[in-house]
Amino acid sequence: MKLKMFDPPGHLPDFVGIPGQLQQWSKAISGWIDGAIQIEQGRLKDFPKAQVQFFNATETDPAGLSLDQDIVWNAFPRTLVLGYGKAKAYPTSEQLFSLTAPRPGLPTAPPFYVDPPGTTMWSDLLYRPLDEYCEFRVERHPDTHKIIRITFTSEPPEYWQALHGDELQDANGNFAYKFTGDKKKMLDLYHQYVSTKVKLGDLECKHEYYYMVTDANGKPVLGPDGKQQKQVVFRKGDYNPYNVWNSTKGIMHLSQPNNFVQAEIQLAADATILRHKNGRAVVQADALVCCSGYGGTSRSSDPTIGASVNDLARLGAWVTIKNPIGLYMHDLNTEGFTKPNGEQIDPKEYFKVLRGDEAGHMIERAVFEVPEKEGFTVSDLKIAGVPITWGGQVAEHINISITGTGVNPRYFNNPMLPCATFCCIDTDVSIALTRVINNGDPIPEGYQRAFLHEQGTFASQASKPTLLQTAAKEVYHEVSGIPRHKRR
Protein backbone atom coordinates (compact mmCIF):
# COMPACT_ATOMS: atom_id res chain seq x y z
CA MET A 1 0.00 0.00 0.00
CA LYS A 2 1.31 3.44 -0.90
CA LEU A 3 2.07 5.82 1.93
CA LYS A 4 -0.51 8.61 2.04
CA MET A 5 2.02 11.30 2.97
CA PHE A 6 5.34 11.81 4.74
CA ASP A 7 5.05 12.93 8.36
CA PRO A 8 7.23 15.56 10.08
CA PRO A 9 10.40 14.28 11.81
CA GLY A 10 9.63 12.48 15.06
CA HIS A 11 5.95 13.34 14.55
CA LEU A 12 6.68 16.86 15.80
CA PRO A 13 3.36 18.73 16.17
CA ASP A 14 4.34 22.28 15.21
CA PHE A 15 3.01 22.12 11.64
CA VAL A 16 -0.51 21.27 12.83
CA GLY A 17 -2.83 24.22 12.34
CA ILE A 18 -0.65 25.91 9.71
CA PRO A 19 -2.63 25.86 6.43
CA GLY A 20 -1.09 23.39 3.97
CA GLN A 21 2.11 22.96 6.00
CA LEU A 22 1.90 19.19 6.49
CA GLN A 23 1.22 18.65 2.79
CA GLN A 24 4.05 21.00 1.89
CA TRP A 25 6.49 19.05 4.06
CA SER A 26 5.42 15.78 2.46
CA LYS A 27 5.86 17.33 -0.99
CA ALA A 28 9.40 18.44 -0.13
CA ILE A 29 10.41 15.01 1.21
CA SER A 30 8.85 13.39 -1.85
CA GLY A 31 10.69 15.81 -4.15
CA TRP A 32 14.04 15.15 -2.49
CA ILE A 33 13.52 11.41 -2.88
CA ASP A 34 12.54 11.81 -6.54
CA GLY A 35 15.60 14.00 -7.07
CA ALA A 36 17.82 11.35 -5.52
CA ILE A 37 16.26 8.69 -7.76
CA GLN A 38 17.01 10.84 -10.82
CA ILE A 39 20.64 11.15 -9.74
CA GLU A 40 20.89 7.37 -9.40
CA GLN A 41 19.35 6.93 -12.85
CA GLY A 42 22.12 9.14 -14.19
CA ARG A 43 24.75 6.99 -12.50
CA LEU A 44 23.26 3.84 -14.03
CA LYS A 45 22.78 5.17 -17.58
CA ASP A 46 25.81 3.26 -18.90
CA PHE A 47 24.59 0.02 -17.30
CA PRO A 48 21.29 -0.87 -19.05
CA LYS A 49 20.72 -4.00 -16.94
CA ALA A 50 20.83 -2.04 -13.67
CA GLN A 51 17.70 -0.48 -12.17
CA VAL A 52 17.29 2.02 -9.34
CA GLN A 53 16.23 0.20 -6.17
CA PHE A 54 15.55 3.32 -4.10
CA PHE A 55 11.85 4.25 -4.12
CA ASN A 56 9.35 6.90 -3.05
CA ALA A 57 6.80 5.29 -0.72
CA THR A 58 4.11 7.85 -1.64
CA GLU A 59 4.42 7.00 -5.35
CA THR A 60 5.40 3.32 -5.51
CA ASP A 61 3.92 0.25 -3.85
CA PRO A 62 6.45 -2.59 -4.26
CA ALA A 63 4.06 -5.03 -2.51
CA GLY A 64 5.53 -7.99 -0.70
CA LEU A 65 7.51 -8.84 2.40
CA SER A 66 8.79 -5.73 4.19
CA LEU A 67 11.97 -5.74 6.27
CA ASP A 68 12.90 -2.90 8.64
CA GLN A 69 16.56 -2.47 9.54
CA ASP A 70 17.51 -0.21 12.45
CA ILE A 71 20.71 1.63 11.58
CA VAL A 72 22.53 2.76 14.72
CA TRP A 73 25.77 4.66 15.31
CA ASN A 74 27.52 6.73 17.98
CA ALA A 75 26.76 10.42 18.50
CA PHE A 76 30.30 11.63 19.19
CA PRO A 77 32.12 12.61 15.98
CA ARG A 78 34.62 10.05 14.80
CA THR A 79 36.13 12.76 12.60
CA LEU A 80 37.24 14.68 15.69
CA VAL A 81 38.74 11.61 17.32
CA LEU A 82 40.67 10.69 14.18
CA GLY A 83 41.68 14.26 13.47
CA TYR A 84 42.68 15.41 16.95
CA GLY A 85 42.94 12.38 19.24
CA LYS A 86 40.47 11.74 22.04
CA ALA A 87 41.95 14.20 24.56
CA LYS A 88 41.74 17.16 22.18
CA ALA A 89 38.51 16.00 20.51
CA TYR A 90 36.51 16.68 23.70
CA PRO A 91 37.29 20.41 23.98
CA THR A 92 37.18 20.84 20.18
CA SER A 93 33.64 19.46 20.14
CA GLU A 94 32.49 22.42 22.26
CA GLN A 95 34.04 25.04 19.97
CA LEU A 96 32.35 26.88 17.10
CA PHE A 97 33.71 27.24 13.57
CA SER A 98 32.87 29.71 10.82
CA LEU A 99 31.43 28.79 7.43
CA THR A 100 33.33 31.72 5.95
CA ALA A 101 36.52 29.66 6.29
CA PRO A 102 37.45 26.14 5.11
CA ARG A 103 36.01 23.49 7.40
CA PRO A 104 38.35 21.58 9.74
CA GLY A 105 39.46 18.37 8.06
CA LEU A 106 37.66 19.30 4.80
CA PRO A 107 40.03 21.59 2.87
CA THR A 108 37.98 21.21 -0.33
CA ALA A 109 34.69 22.30 1.26
CA PRO A 110 33.79 25.72 -0.21
CA PRO A 111 33.47 28.63 2.24
CA PHE A 112 30.35 30.78 2.34
CA TYR A 113 30.28 34.31 0.98
CA VAL A 114 27.87 37.19 1.47
CA ASP A 115 26.31 39.57 -1.03
CA PRO A 116 27.07 42.43 -0.92
CA PRO A 117 30.67 41.55 0.10
CA GLY A 118 32.01 42.75 3.42
CA THR A 119 28.59 43.25 5.03
CA THR A 120 28.59 40.37 7.50
CA MET A 121 30.47 39.43 10.61
CA TRP A 122 32.10 36.01 10.94
CA SER A 123 29.77 35.40 13.91
CA ASP A 124 26.74 35.27 11.58
CA LEU A 125 27.75 31.85 10.24
CA LEU A 126 29.07 29.79 13.15
CA TYR A 127 28.41 26.07 13.45
CA ARG A 128 29.26 23.18 15.74
CA PRO A 129 31.75 20.58 14.37
CA LEU A 130 29.41 17.70 15.29
CA ASP A 131 28.67 15.73 12.13
CA GLU A 132 26.87 12.62 13.41
CA TYR A 133 23.34 14.09 13.19
CA CYS A 134 23.41 14.92 16.90
CA GLU A 135 24.68 18.21 18.29
CA PHE A 136 25.02 19.44 21.85
CA ARG A 137 25.65 22.60 23.84
CA VAL A 138 27.25 22.64 27.27
CA GLU A 139 26.27 25.14 29.98
CA ARG A 140 28.67 25.61 32.90
CA HIS A 141 28.49 27.31 36.29
CA PRO A 142 30.00 30.81 35.92
CA ASP A 143 32.21 30.40 38.99
CA THR A 144 33.12 26.71 39.25
CA HIS A 145 32.88 25.97 35.47
CA LYS A 146 31.25 22.67 36.33
CA ILE A 147 28.72 21.38 33.81
CA ILE A 148 25.16 22.11 34.89
CA ARG A 149 23.33 21.19 31.68
CA ILE A 150 23.96 19.55 28.28
CA THR A 151 21.32 20.10 25.62
CA PHE A 152 21.19 17.66 22.70
CA THR A 153 19.33 18.05 19.42
CA SER A 154 18.81 16.07 16.22
CA GLU A 155 16.20 18.38 14.68
CA PRO A 156 17.01 19.06 10.99
CA PRO A 157 17.48 22.67 9.80
CA GLU A 158 14.92 22.18 7.01
CA TYR A 159 12.16 21.80 9.61
CA TRP A 160 12.90 25.28 10.96
CA GLN A 161 13.26 26.80 7.51
CA ALA A 162 9.81 25.40 6.74
CA LEU A 163 8.39 26.76 10.01
CA HIS A 164 9.73 30.17 9.05
CA GLY A 165 7.87 29.98 5.74
CA ASP A 166 10.89 29.73 3.43
CA GLU A 167 11.18 28.21 -0.02
CA LEU A 168 13.47 25.16 0.18
CA GLN A 169 15.77 23.95 -2.57
CA ASP A 170 15.48 20.77 -4.62
CA ALA A 171 18.30 18.34 -5.47
CA ASN A 172 19.51 20.71 -8.20
CA GLY A 173 19.74 23.76 -5.96
CA ASN A 174 16.57 25.39 -7.27
CA PHE A 175 14.17 27.04 -4.82
CA ALA A 176 11.20 24.72 -5.36
CA TYR A 177 9.26 23.97 -2.17
CA LYS A 178 7.37 26.91 -0.69
CA PHE A 179 6.02 26.73 2.87
CA THR A 180 3.25 28.72 4.52
CA GLY A 181 5.10 28.81 7.82
CA ASP A 182 4.22 30.54 11.06
CA LYS A 183 6.89 32.94 12.29
CA LYS A 184 5.09 33.57 15.58
CA LYS A 185 4.96 29.86 16.39
CA MET A 186 8.64 29.54 15.49
CA LEU A 187 9.54 32.47 17.76
CA ASP A 188 7.42 31.05 20.58
CA LEU A 189 9.38 27.78 20.37
CA TYR A 190 12.66 29.67 20.59
CA HIS A 191 11.30 31.50 23.64
CA GLN A 192 10.28 28.19 25.21
CA TYR A 193 13.47 26.25 24.58
CA VAL A 194 16.26 28.82 24.20
CA SER A 195 15.55 32.31 25.57
CA THR A 196 12.74 34.82 25.96
CA LYS A 197 15.18 37.43 24.62
CA VAL A 198 15.09 36.05 21.07
CA LYS A 199 13.73 38.46 18.46
CA LEU A 200 12.48 37.47 15.02
CA GLY A 201 15.11 39.62 13.33
CA ASP A 202 17.83 37.66 15.17
CA LEU A 203 16.77 34.52 13.32
CA GLU A 204 16.75 35.88 9.77
CA CYS A 205 19.45 36.39 7.13
CA LYS A 206 20.36 40.04 6.86
CA HIS A 207 22.08 39.38 3.52
CA GLU A 208 22.31 36.74 0.80
CA TYR A 209 24.66 33.86 1.57
CA TYR A 210 26.23 31.78 -1.20
CA TYR A 211 29.26 29.71 -2.15
CA MET A 212 31.26 29.44 -5.34
CA VAL A 213 30.71 26.11 -7.09
CA THR A 214 33.67 23.72 -7.44
CA ASP A 215 34.01 20.15 -8.68
CA ALA A 216 35.10 17.13 -6.61
CA ASN A 217 38.72 18.24 -6.96
CA GLY A 218 38.08 21.79 -5.80
CA LYS A 219 38.34 23.31 -9.29
CA PRO A 220 35.93 26.13 -10.28
CA VAL A 221 32.81 25.15 -12.21
CA LEU A 222 32.29 27.72 -14.95
CA GLY A 223 28.96 28.91 -16.34
CA PRO A 224 28.08 29.78 -19.96
CA ASP A 225 29.58 33.23 -19.45
CA GLY A 226 32.94 31.74 -18.48
CA LYS A 227 32.65 32.87 -14.86
CA GLN A 228 32.61 30.60 -11.84
CA GLN A 229 29.07 29.60 -10.92
CA LYS A 230 27.52 30.90 -7.71
CA GLN A 231 25.12 28.79 -5.64
CA VAL A 232 22.81 30.76 -3.36
CA VAL A 233 22.19 28.94 -0.08
CA PHE A 234 20.11 31.46 1.89
CA ARG A 235 18.38 34.52 0.51
CA LYS A 236 18.05 37.81 2.37
CA GLY A 237 15.13 37.52 4.80
CA ASP A 238 15.28 33.71 4.91
CA TYR A 239 15.65 31.82 8.16
CA ASN A 240 19.32 31.65 9.17
CA PRO A 241 20.15 28.21 10.66
CA TYR A 242 23.41 29.69 11.94
CA ASN A 243 21.79 32.50 13.92
CA VAL A 244 23.36 33.46 17.26
CA TRP A 245 20.59 31.74 19.25
CA ASN A 246 21.53 28.48 17.57
CA SER A 247 25.27 28.97 18.00
CA THR A 248 26.88 31.35 20.51
CA LYS A 249 23.81 31.95 22.70
CA GLY A 250 21.90 28.67 22.50
CA ILE A 251 20.95 25.59 20.53
CA MET A 252 17.68 24.83 18.78
CA HIS A 253 18.54 22.42 15.95
CA LEU A 254 21.37 20.89 13.92
CA SER A 255 23.80 23.34 12.32
CA GLN A 256 26.76 21.34 10.99
CA PRO A 257 26.67 21.77 7.18
CA ASN A 258 26.31 18.02 6.53
CA ASN A 259 23.44 17.50 8.97
CA PHE A 260 20.52 17.97 6.59
CA VAL A 261 17.63 15.61 5.81
CA GLN A 262 18.24 16.02 2.09
CA ALA A 263 21.82 14.80 2.52
CA GLU A 264 20.57 11.76 4.45
CA ILE A 265 18.16 10.88 1.63
CA GLN A 266 20.81 11.25 -1.07
CA LEU A 267 23.29 9.11 0.87
CA ALA A 268 20.74 6.31 1.26
CA ALA A 269 19.93 6.41 -2.45
CA ASP A 270 23.63 6.30 -3.39
CA ALA A 271 24.13 3.26 -1.16
CA THR A 272 21.60 1.15 -3.07
CA ILE A 273 24.05 0.75 -5.97
CA LEU A 274 25.89 -2.58 -5.73
CA ARG A 275 29.66 -2.35 -6.12
CA HIS A 276 32.49 -4.76 -6.80
CA LYS A 277 36.26 -4.72 -6.89
CA ASN A 278 37.94 -7.28 -9.10
CA GLY A 279 34.69 -9.22 -9.24
CA ARG A 280 34.17 -9.40 -5.48
CA ALA A 281 31.31 -7.58 -3.80
CA VAL A 282 32.36 -4.60 -1.71
CA VAL A 283 30.48 -4.89 1.59
CA GLN A 284 32.68 -3.56 4.41
CA ALA A 285 31.43 -0.13 5.53
CA ASP A 286 34.59 1.96 5.10
CA ALA A 287 35.57 0.24 1.86
CA LEU A 288 32.07 0.77 0.46
CA VAL A 289 32.19 4.53 1.12
CA CYS A 290 35.53 4.71 -0.66
CA CYS A 291 34.27 2.63 -3.58
CA SER A 292 30.92 4.38 -4.06
CA GLY A 293 31.96 7.94 -3.26
CA TYR A 294 29.16 8.96 -0.90
CA GLY A 295 29.38 10.67 2.48
CA GLY A 296 32.32 11.24 4.78
CA THR A 297 34.90 8.48 5.11
CA SER A 298 35.84 9.40 8.68
CA ARG A 299 32.33 9.67 10.11
CA SER A 300 30.50 6.92 11.99
CA SER A 301 27.13 7.77 10.42
CA ASP A 302 27.78 7.73 6.68
CA PRO A 303 29.66 4.41 6.44
CA THR A 304 27.15 2.77 8.79
CA ILE A 305 24.10 4.07 6.92
CA GLY A 306 25.65 3.19 3.56
CA ALA A 307 26.61 -0.37 4.48
CA SER A 308 23.24 -1.12 6.11
CA VAL A 309 21.25 0.22 3.15
CA ASN A 310 23.53 -1.68 0.79
CA ASP A 311 22.80 -4.88 2.74
CA LEU A 312 19.10 -4.40 1.94
CA ALA A 313 19.88 -3.65 -1.70
CA ARG A 314 21.93 -6.85 -2.04
CA LEU A 315 18.81 -8.77 -1.04
CA GLY A 316 17.33 -7.58 -4.34
CA ALA A 317 14.73 -5.50 -2.46
CA TRP A 318 13.18 -2.13 -3.09
CA VAL A 319 14.80 0.19 -0.53
CA THR A 320 13.72 3.38 1.23
CA ILE A 321 13.97 5.20 4.57
CA LYS A 322 11.10 4.52 6.93
CA ASN A 323 8.57 7.30 7.54
CA PRO A 324 8.89 9.74 9.23
CA ILE A 325 12.22 10.57 7.61
CA GLY A 326 14.47 12.48 9.97
CA LEU A 327 17.51 12.25 12.23
CA TYR A 328 17.01 10.76 15.68
CA MET A 329 18.56 10.05 19.03
CA HIS A 330 17.64 6.46 19.79
CA ASP A 331 18.58 6.37 23.48
CA LEU A 332 21.20 7.15 26.12
CA ASN A 333 23.06 4.18 27.57
CA THR A 334 23.95 5.04 31.17
CA GLU A 335 25.79 1.81 31.92
CA GLY A 336 28.73 2.82 34.13
CA PHE A 337 27.26 6.24 35.06
CA THR A 338 27.45 6.79 38.81
CA LYS A 339 26.46 9.49 41.32
CA PRO A 340 28.91 10.92 43.87
CA ASN A 341 27.78 8.24 46.34
CA GLY A 342 28.56 5.48 43.82
CA GLU A 343 24.91 4.72 42.99
CA GLN A 344 24.16 3.71 39.38
CA ILE A 345 22.13 6.18 37.30
CA ASP A 346 18.88 5.15 35.69
CA PRO A 347 18.76 6.12 31.97
CA LYS A 348 15.72 8.36 32.49
CA GLU A 349 16.84 9.91 35.75
CA TYR A 350 18.78 12.86 34.33
CA PHE A 351 18.14 12.51 30.58
CA LYS A 352 14.87 14.28 29.84
CA VAL A 353 13.29 14.10 26.39
CA LEU A 354 11.71 17.42 25.38
CA ARG A 355 10.77 16.90 21.73
CA GLY A 356 10.16 13.93 19.48
CA ASP A 357 8.75 10.44 19.91
CA GLU A 358 10.56 8.88 22.87
CA ALA A 359 8.61 5.62 22.77
CA GLY A 360 9.45 5.20 19.08
CA HIS A 361 13.13 6.00 19.67
CA MET A 362 12.80 9.17 17.57
CA ILE A 363 14.13 11.68 20.09
CA GLU A 364 14.71 15.15 18.64
CA ARG A 365 15.61 17.22 21.71
CA ALA A 366 16.76 16.24 25.20
CA VAL A 367 18.68 17.64 28.15
CA PHE A 368 21.06 15.94 30.54
CA GLU A 369 21.14 17.71 33.91
CA VAL A 370 20.97 17.08 37.65
CA PRO A 371 18.12 18.82 39.51
CA GLU A 372 19.49 21.60 41.70
CA LYS A 373 17.83 20.11 44.78
CA GLU A 374 20.21 17.11 44.64
CA GLY A 375 23.13 19.36 45.57
CA PHE A 376 25.60 18.32 42.86
CA THR A 377 26.15 18.86 39.14
CA VAL A 378 26.73 16.87 35.97
CA SER A 379 30.48 17.28 36.53
CA ASP A 380 30.13 15.46 39.85
CA LEU A 381 28.90 12.37 38.03
CA LYS A 382 31.32 9.75 36.76
CA ILE A 383 31.42 7.45 33.77
CA ALA A 384 33.44 4.31 34.45
CA GLY A 385 35.03 6.14 37.37
CA VAL A 386 36.01 9.22 35.32
CA PRO A 387 34.38 12.58 36.21
CA ILE A 388 32.33 14.23 33.45
CA THR A 389 34.30 17.30 32.40
CA TRP A 390 33.16 17.49 28.75
CA GLY A 391 29.82 17.15 27.01
CA GLY A 392 31.38 14.70 24.59
CA GLN A 393 31.74 12.12 27.36
CA VAL A 394 27.95 11.90 27.56
CA ALA A 395 27.50 12.13 23.78
CA GLU A 396 29.65 9.00 23.41
CA HIS A 397 26.88 7.06 25.15
CA ILE A 398 24.05 8.31 22.93
CA ASN A 399 22.95 6.14 20.02
CA ILE A 400 21.73 7.82 16.82
CA SER A 401 19.51 5.95 14.40
CA ILE A 402 17.35 5.87 11.31
CA THR A 403 15.45 2.90 9.93
CA GLY A 404 15.97 1.49 6.47
CA THR A 405 13.19 -0.54 4.83
CA GLY A 406 13.56 -3.26 2.23
CA VAL A 407 10.44 -4.47 0.40
CA ASN A 408 9.94 -7.50 -1.81
CA PRO A 409 13.38 -9.18 -1.65
CA ARG A 410 14.66 -10.79 -4.86
CA TYR A 411 12.64 -8.42 -7.02
CA PHE A 412 15.87 -7.01 -8.47
CA ASN A 413 18.83 -8.87 -9.89
CA ASN A 414 21.09 -5.89 -10.47
CA PRO A 415 24.68 -6.30 -11.64
CA MET A 416 27.49 -5.01 -9.46
CA LEU A 417 29.15 -1.86 -10.77
CA PRO A 418 32.88 -1.22 -10.55
CA CYS A 419 34.15 1.23 -7.95
CA ALA A 420 33.62 4.85 -8.98
CA THR A 421 36.08 6.31 -6.47
CA PHE A 422 38.83 5.30 -4.06
CA CYS A 423 40.46 6.46 -0.83
CA CYS A 424 44.05 6.72 0.24
CA ILE A 425 45.83 6.45 3.54
CA ASP A 426 48.98 8.11 4.83
CA THR A 427 51.85 5.63 4.63
CA ASP A 428 53.54 7.08 7.73
CA VAL A 429 50.59 7.94 10.00
CA SER A 430 47.78 5.57 9.08
CA ILE A 431 45.02 7.08 11.22
CA ALA A 432 42.24 8.01 8.82
CA LEU A 433 41.15 7.58 5.23
CA THR A 434 41.26 10.52 2.85
CA ARG A 435 38.16 11.98 1.27
CA VAL A 436 37.09 10.00 -1.78
CA ILE A 437 39.13 10.49 -4.95
CA ASN A 438 37.74 10.04 -8.46
CA ASN A 439 39.14 7.21 -10.53
CA GLY A 440 41.95 8.53 -12.71
CA ASP A 441 42.89 11.37 -10.37
CA PRO A 442 46.42 11.32 -8.92
CA ILE A 443 47.27 9.84 -5.56
CA PRO A 444 48.46 12.52 -3.12
CA GLU A 445 52.16 12.47 -2.33
CA GLY A 446 52.94 10.38 0.74
CA TYR A 447 49.73 8.35 0.43
CA GLN A 448 48.75 5.00 -1.07
CA ARG A 449 45.43 3.43 -2.02
CA ALA A 450 43.48 1.87 0.82
CA PHE A 451 41.94 -1.62 0.70
CA LEU A 452 44.47 -2.93 -1.81
CA HIS A 453 44.44 -6.45 -0.38
CA GLU A 454 41.01 -6.89 1.19
CA GLN A 455 39.10 -6.12 -2.02
CA GLY A 456 36.42 -4.50 0.12
CA THR A 457 36.40 -7.13 2.86
CA PHE A 458 38.71 -8.18 5.70
CA ALA A 459 40.74 -10.99 4.17
CA SER A 460 41.51 -13.58 6.87
CA GLN A 461 44.28 -15.08 4.74
CA ALA A 462 46.27 -11.83 4.67
CA SER A 463 49.91 -12.55 5.54
CA LYS A 464 50.57 -9.12 7.06
CA PRO A 465 48.52 -6.44 8.86
CA THR A 466 46.05 -4.69 6.60
CA LEU A 467 45.98 -0.93 6.11
CA LEU A 468 42.76 -0.67 8.10
CA GLN A 469 44.20 -2.76 10.92
CA THR A 470 47.23 -0.47 10.96
CA ALA A 471 44.97 2.58 11.04
CA ALA A 472 42.95 1.11 13.91
CA LYS A 473 46.15 0.45 15.84
CA GLU A 474 47.31 4.03 15.34
CA VAL A 475 43.96 5.40 16.52
CA TYR A 476 44.18 3.18 19.62
CA HIS A 477 47.63 4.58 20.37
CA GLU A 478 46.47 8.16 19.92
CA VAL A 479 43.42 7.68 22.15
CA SER A 480 45.45 5.87 24.80
CA GLY A 481 48.18 8.50 24.80
CA ILE A 482 50.93 5.91 24.25
CA PRO A 483 54.21 7.68 23.31
CA ARG A 484 55.26 6.97 19.72
CA HIS A 485 58.60 5.39 20.75
CA LYS A 486 56.75 2.82 22.90
CA ARG A 487 54.24 1.72 20.23
CA ARG A 488 54.34 -1.84 18.88
What is this structure, in a nutshell?
By secondary structure, the chain is of the alpha+beta class.
Write up this protein.
- The structure is a single chain.
- This protein has 488 residues and is an alpha+beta fold.
- The protein contains 10 helices and 25 strands.
- Strands 1, 13, 14 and 20 form a 4-stranded antiparallel β-sheet that branches. The chain has a 4-stranded antiparallel β-sheet with strand order 5-6-17-16.
- The protein is globular, with a radius of gyration of 23 Å.
- β5 and β6 form a beta hairpin.
- α2 packs across α3, α6 crosses α8 and α7 crosses α8.
- The termini are far apart.
- The chain has a domain of 67 residues.
**With helices defined by DSSP (H or I, 4 residues minimum), what is the helix count?**
10
Q: How many strand segments? A: 25
For the termini, the CA-CA separation is: 58 Å
Model regions low in confidence, pLDDT < 50 over at least 5 residues: 456-488
Secondary-structure-based class equals alpha+beta
Strand fraction band?
15-25%
Helix content: 10-25%
| Sheet with the most strands, sense and barrel status | 4 strands, antiparallel
